[in-house]
Amino acid sequence: QQALAGEVVRMARDRFLLRSAVAQLADAVVRLSRQRAQGEFTIADYRDQAGIGRNLAIEVLEYFDRLGLTRREGDARAIRCLDEDLAAAMKDPHWRPLPFTRPEEHV
Hints:
Blueprint: E1 8-12, E2 15-18, H1 19-35, E3 40-42, H2 43-50, H3 54-67, E4 70-73, E5 76-79, H4 85-89
Antiparallel strand pairs: 1-2, 3-5, 4-5
């Protein structure tokens, strides 16, 4: 029922998070990007900033890449939304994520 109500986000095939947790993870991306001179950061940087494990950090950043919040450039990532509009929108109780699609479907 929570998934139908939009409270749960399907981040990966077998990974679901509360929408409020996704918003907190998006805030961590924004904070980290602001701390960097070029705005770029690695998975390890994000893992440490968010206080999560490496595998979850990878899934979160791949999800944010698909949403358009971040973009991957080699081993680094950067914020794609200059005004962090997407990260702010995730805090809105009416925000709903895009339906889950496998990464290979985005080629």
